[in-house]
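Can't paste images in this forum, so I'm doing it all in text. The chain is below; anyone willing to post the predicted C-alpha cells underneath?
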Amino acid sequence: MISYSRIKCYTQCPAKYKYKYKLKLAGGATDVVASSRGTLLHSAAEEFILGLSTELPVELQKWEKVLTKLRDEGCQSEVKIEIPEHDIHGTLDTLQVQDTTAEVGDWKSGQVRDYSSQLKFYAMLVFYAKPQVNTVSTRVRYIDKGKSVPGPTYSRKELPAIHAEFKAMIDRMNKDPVCAPNPSSLCAFCPYSKKASGICKW
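Text version of the structure:
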C-alpha cells in the first residue's frame, strides 16, 4: 500500500524511491540521530495522550498543557488508517473527531516547513475512513519551536479532486521504468548518496 512517505520520497528523487522501496536496499553510512530523536518524541507524546505515562522528555515539557488538553478531550494518537480499495494508508499523529468535523495534527521536531501536501493526504484518509466527517482541519505542532500552526481546512466536496491529485502521483510512480536521480541539496542527507558511501553516483 502507498503511504505519503513513499510519494514524498519519489517527488524528491525517483532514484531514492527505487533504492528504498523497489530494490529495498540498505543505505550507506548516514546520520540517523534526527530520525531516531523524532521517533522517540512521537512515542513520548503518544504515551502521554493515551494516559500510559505522565513523564515527558525535556523537549515536550513545554507542551504539557497542550498534551493534557488532548488527553482530556479523548484525542486519538498514532492512528493507523488503511484504505485497501484505493491502496493507500497512513499514520496520523493526532486525530480528534467530533460529530461531522475532525482535526488532524502532526508533530514535527525539525524546522518550520510547508507540510500542506502531507496534511492533504491525511485529510483524504480521514474522509474515506470516517464517512460522517464533512470537514477536516489540520495543524502542525513544531516541538522545538514551540509553535502550533493551523494548516488548511478541507471539505468533503473536495475529496474527488484530492484523490485525483494523489492518484496521478501514484500512477506516475508505478509507471516510471527508470526512476532517474534528481540531484539537489537533499543529496547531502540521502543514505544512498556518494557522500554516504551509498549506491548513487551523486
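Residues 44 and 57 are 7 Å apart (CA to CA). The longest helix spans residues 33-49.
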